[in-house]
Amino acid sequence: MIHPVRRALAVAASRAPRQFLAAASRTTSVRSVRAAAASGSYYSTTSRRLQDAFPSQLENLASSTLPKVVPQVPQTLTEKIVQRYSVGLAPGKKVKSGDYVTLQPHHCMTHDNSWPVAMKFMSIGASKIHDNRQVVMTLDHDVQNKSEANLKKYRQIEEFANTHGVDFYPAGRGIGHQIMVEEGYAWPGTVTVASDSHSNMYGGVGCLGTPMVRTDAASIWATGKTWWQIPPIAKVTFTGLLPPGVTGKDVIVALCGLFNNDDVLNHAIEFTGAEETMRSIPVDDRLTIANMTTEWGALSGLFPIDAVLASWMRAKATVTAMEHPELGDKAKFTHAKIDALLENPLVADPGATYAKQLYLNLSTLSPFVAGPNSVKIATPLKDLEAQNLKLDKAYLVSCTNSRASDIAAAARVFKDAAADNNGVIPKVAPGVKFYIAAASLLEQKQAEDSGDWQVLLDAGAEPLPSGCGPCIGLGTGLLEPGEIGISASNRNFKGRMGSTDAKAYLASPEVVAASALKGKIAGPGWYQKPEGVEKVIIGEGNGVVEQDKAMSIEDALDKIIAEAESLIANAEAGLTPESTSSSPSSSEEESLTEILPGFPEAISGEIIFCDADNINTDGIYPGKYTYQDNITPAKMAEVCMENYDASFGSIARAGDILVTGFNFGCGSSREQAATAILAKQIPLVVSGSFGNIFSRNSINNALMGVEVPKLVQRLREEFGGGEKTVATRRTGWKLTWDVRRSKVVVEEASGKKWEQKVGELPPNVQEIIARGGLEKWVKSQIEA
User: Fold this and answer.
1) CA dist 644 → 24, 614, 620 (Å)
2) 8 A C-beta contact, residue 360 and residue 257
3) What DSSP state is assigned to residue 408?
4) What's the rounded Cα separation, in Å, for the pair 614 and 297?
5) What is each CA distance from 673 to 111, 520, 659, in whole angstroms?
6) What average pLDDT does the segment 473-477 reach?
7) Distance CA 179, CA 185 (A)
8) Is 418 exposed, middle or buried (0-12, 13-18, 19+ CB in 10 A)?
9) Which NCBIfam families match (predicted)?
10) Which stretch of DSSP H or E encloses residue 370?
């Protein structure tokens, strides 16, 4: 057995490369760094504390008074915030990426789905909200719907909120995410969740915002807590400065389109950069970027707590003190609260571990447009302008880009044009409809006070109530077949904003306004190209060449240290590398999964193949049905995959195994994406990879899923490519998922058989699925 102190030394040694990196950044060449490392001046397997110890202590570590070495584990900003809001941690435990934690979020927001959440809450036997100060309810999605059924649901939500003393914001007050930010619920350094996929937006103000689903929200209402696995964490470094005419929307559209190979799929993102660089990104732009990290595939998008954020908060505190002096220290924003926040702001530790690092040079960026019908297609505006794409509809709506600053940018387009029109505000182009809706009433009032709102009305814009509206595909102004639309919102999935035969593009507010004015996709001409810039500079690392080289050396050293630690761990357990190996038969026996009584040991069916990556929740279950709570399972089965392939319903059969490409279930947090597939009597979904929120919904609703990239590749070899590719295909192949042995067996139409190991389905997840989902499992626990 190796002495515990030796183990501590090995752990301490694993941190040494961080010191090595710091030294590397001060040297003039990688060669000199290597030489320094070889000489031991930067890297040593003996900690500084032991180097300074007395010889007598080193001779007899077991009986010495040497303090126990407890290495400090560097944490990312994400990990530090999660640390604060995790409960039940072991003493001294430092959370890290990959850990499962019990999370007690600062706040939890629900919107139009509050009543379905309330139904879940009551169905599990709960009668009182655990902490009513934790919960916020906003009505924002279907606010244009004046049907009695929708108005009744809205009344039920308001009555429930009043009964439980929950903060409630009625329809028309604003979009929930904007309310969470402007009312101070999304506070820097906290964890705040919502049952909506764009909770990432809170990261724009240094708050770790991440989505939960309806069942999770019900759990938080009942217990104040839910489960979360800390995702892999990616660092995105900005360099340079945003040029004039380039906005936060261009930044995130470019990131989605240029890093478009699922680079940050299911990651938590931390944005960083030099102080001068970050000063060029105001808070409103940060909110836009963080909001659309959802479309980039991430689970959060966190900006630092810095001087830019502090100035924004100070301004809000000052305005609040002037307009509402009666609130005093009860106001959401006060200078005293901001002082406390800034006294010891959370920052990532030097040497914190990131799963990947990417960079974007802002100085090389120009205006970009996403689409059509995908955020993964990003095109420089100048290229689309040359195509003279005739426009039918334009939208300045959503929580992404309809704040007062966005409305001001759009109004400036028409004001500039008025200078060439004898001072008269010009109208939008003939045949174009331009819809506007502020992110909240407060933002609309600010735009009205400045005159910007009236400018857009004078130009012919059609105002809509503050809410989600066209962004979610609800209410007035949806895209008709064959139409082209451009929006400042966050999603342009096929069919989301109307017809599946329409084309939707995303752009900044000024580009949307200029397009409405000119009748085609166009910009206002504000962009000033920096001298010498010919292309967007992006890459892996942090954008500083010498540091990136040093980091690659550090990665190699980390690998060596990890191998050394593994050897030590094996020795402590009385093992050697040889003794840890086993024969194939014993290995297979060791990997057997316990199967709970009544749970099937295997699931079989014919493969139905939907040959596409990034099939989103709008494709699986159309948004127009999402907030109709009385839809029957039969209707859900009928519309399942409707926006992806209208013929899916007639091709798929009960008992089929649905196989799809990569990143299946990306997009919104709607649970119906999982329950519609179950309604279609499809028991198992297999994909190359899943969107995290869909995986969570699947478990919570008893839909089983397995990732088998090899199967997707093999199906594409057989059926994909060129004219052979069809949206939905019956393959004649049979798949069997052997749950006990954690493998799938595939029998192709030719009779060829092959198998592939897959992830284990542990008993605790089996139990949730066997019970019919998390809601019924929680109820059973309460009853027990």
Assistant:
1) 51, 11, 7
2) no
3) H
4) 10
5) 18, 35, 15
6) 91
7) 8
8) middle
9) h_aconitase
10) strand 368-370
Name the one residue in this structure whose structure tokens are 């499962």. Answer: 100
Q: Residue 594 has what DSSP assignment?
A: P
Q: Which residues pair with 136 in a beta bridge?
A: 109, 167
Amino acid making up residue 514: A
Q: Is a pLDDT exceeding 70 seen at residue 316?
A: yes
* Chain length of the chain: 784
Which two structure tokens, joined as six digits, stand for 164? 């439980």
Q: Classify the phi-psi angles of 732: left when phi > 0, otherwise alpha if psi is within -120 to 50, otherwise beta.
A: left
Over pLDDT 70: what percentage of the chain? 84
The rounded distance, in Å, linking the Cα atoms of 283 and 303 is 9
Task: List pLDDT tens digits, range 172-202.
Answer: 999 999 999 999 999 999 999 999 999 999 9
Peptide bond into 600 cis (omega under 30): no
β partners of residue 616 = 666
- pLDDT-based confidence at 591, cuts 50/70/90? low
Is the model's pLDDT at 495 over the cut of 50?
A: yes
Mean pLDDT of 234-245: 97
CA–CA distance, 540 with 538 (Å, rounded to integer) = 7
pTM score of the predicted model: 0.78
pLDDT in tens, 17-62: 333 333 333 333 333 333 333 333 323 333 333 333 333 333 443 4
Do residues 360 and 238 make contact, with C-beta atoms less than 8 angstroms apart?
A: yes
Handedness of CA 578, 580, 581, 583 (dihedral sign): positive
Report the alpha-carbon distance of residue 715 to residue 686 in Å, rounded.
12
- Is the pLDDT at 76 greater than 70? The verdict is yes
Q: List Cα–Cα distances, 438 to 284, 394, 397, 404, 595, in angstroms.
A: 14, 14, 6, 8, 53
Residue 140, pLDDT above cutoff 60: yes
Rounded to the nearest 5 percent, the helix, strand and coil shares of the chain are 40, 15, 40
Best CA proximity match to 342, nearest among 307, 297, 387, 367: 307
